[in-house]
Amino acid sequence: MSSGDEYWTRCPAGEVASLTSRLRSQTRMRAVGRCIVGAAAVVACGATLFLTVGDSGEGQRIGGVWCSDVMEMAEDYVAGSLDAAVMKQIRIHIDHCPGCRQQIDAIRGTSARHPPARTHDALTENRLSGEGRLCFDGRGVVAR
After folding, report:
1. Domain residue spans in the chain?
2. In the chain, N or C terminus with fewer CB closer than 10 Å?
3. Would strands 65-66 and 141-143 be described as parallel, antiparallel, or unpaired?
């Protein structure tokens, strides 16, 4: 024996195997715990998303207006009898919502696609250049 070996003693039979088994069991339990925590986090995120977004039956909210609101005001929109702010919100909505655009087109009696809205940049450029003037033609703002 070399110096320092007098402090060491032989392990009893099966001691190393028992220690190895306990360490493996603890490692498995930690892995299972991590999986449970991860699954709980996914469920919590999904529930939060469902509760905050969920399908309220109103469709999409685009331009500050729900699809259900657009459908309620569709005839007044086509007739042009809504105030300017509401007309603008509905215009933005139907520019981005194909379902509502089809309903508005059906009320108008046309099957043509609703033309895309002119961009703010194009309107601003037209206004600043002094070319023509901006008018509302019942379908949206146009340059004349």
Report:
1. 12-52, 61-143
2. N
3. unpaired
